[in-house]
Amino acid sequence: MYTAWMKKAYLTNIGRIELFDEPVPAIDGEGDVLIRVQSVGVCGSDLHYFRHGRIGQQIVKFPWAVGHECSGVIEAASAACSLKPGTRVAVDPLVPCLLCDQCQFGREHTCRNQKFLGVPGQLDGAMSQYLVLPARCCLPIPDNMTFDQAVMTEPLAIALWAVTLAGTLEDKKVGILGAGPIGLSVLESLKLHSPAHIAITDLLEERVDLAQKRGADWVGNASLDSTAGKLESMHPLGIDVVFECAGKNETIDQAARLLAPGGKLVLVGIPEGDRVSFDMNYLRRKELQVQNVRRQNGCTAKAIDLVATGKVDVDSMITHHFQLKRSQEAFDLVANYRDGVVKAMIHMWD
């Protein structure tokens, strides 16, 4: 019996990615599809596994395939599936159980039994030429959308959900700390809500420049001692909402200083450690609100529509392209913030 083979990238140790040959996975479940993966984005959460082998209690047992931002083409489908071979799709990497209380309450993103692409002990990651997933995870994309753009709908969906959780933003003063792919996606999402002023900071000048080009009202290089002071003097009464997109305790502390009394701190970035701390002098005295963000909640379809109609730009964030065989190089580049990288794409087929 003929067996088809494919290439798949595995994290084999801290900081080490290797390519292996293995059989193309078979469709097992009713409603599953086989995806011929086209593009995979290197995400900040992938880098936690790459650099440290863990995110909190999610600990890698090597070898493990990471990656969850992906797009592709339906190669084959089970008989019960409505998606047909040849359909171009963006992938929502979450597989909820649909049975628990969270799923029943419309909170599939906090499903108690969820499985997620690339998370240790859950689902093998997307760094593979073929992938089997439930069809419900695959959202068709229009012909005018590239596979790279489809990949970017995943971080954009997180940003859309974060902005939704922030509440009414029209005429509000808003800050974004961190101008990586998530921070820039938050910027794109915010522009749809007519805030009075958007300020954004980052440690990397290339990202600061990109944020300015993409429409931020004020940008600052956080590596300069004067930046925080300038932002505070610009808004002496404080900022209404701050999106923390760096996952650093330093930026959490800065957000607390910047926020106006009654303001909201939206935590979008994923910290590398298990714990962060808050300066209660600010949180208590200002009665600040803290809103955590857990992935996205049904925002992928909206993200696809916004990109397809040109209402949101994601192309400017895609700065680097690699073949699958250069996955190690891609991760090294992003992990070390080299060459002005914002989002690196890995293409599964040469």
Describe this structure in words.
The protein has helices spanning 44-52, 101-104, 147-166, 181-190, 205-213, 226-234, 249-258, 280-286, 300-308, 327-335; strands spanning 5-13, 16-23, 32-41, 54-55, 58-59, 69-77, 88-91, 94-95, 115-116, 130-134, 138-140, 173-177, 197-202, 218-221, 239-244, 259-267, 289-292, 318-323, 343-347. The chain is of the alpha/beta class and 350 residues long. It has two domains: 5-140 and 314-347, Quinone Oxidoreductase, Chain A, domain 1 (Alpha-Beta Complex); 157-292, Rossmann fold. The strands form five sheets. Strands 3, 6, 7, 10, 11, 18 and 19 form a seven-stranded mixed sheet that branches. It has a six-stranded parallel sheet with strand order 14-13-12-15-16-17, sandwiched between helices. β16 (259-267), α8 (280-286) and β17 form a beta-alpha-beta unit. The chain is globular, with a radius of gyration of 20 Å. The relative contact order is 0.15. The model has no long low-confidence stretch (mean pLDDT 95).
Please name the fourth-level CATH homologous superfamily of the largest domain. Answer: Medium-chain alcohol dehydrogenases, catalytic domain
**Total helix count?**
10
Q: Give the mean pLDDT.
A: 95
Tell me the total number of β-strands: 19
Structural class: alpha/beta
Give the count of structural domains: 2
The CATH topology of the largest domain is what? Quinone Oxidoreductase, Chain A, domain 1
Fraction of residues in helix: 25-40%
* Mass-distribution shape: globular
The H/E string reads EEEHEEEEEHEEEHEHEHEHEHEHEHEHE
- The gyration radius over C-alpha positions equals 20 Å
- Stretches with pLDDT under 50, minimum 5 residues: none
The biggest sheet amounts to: 7 strands, mixed
Strand content: 25-35%
CATH class category label of the largest domain: Alpha Beta
End-to-end gap:
27 Å
CATH architecture of the largest domain: Alpha-Beta Complex
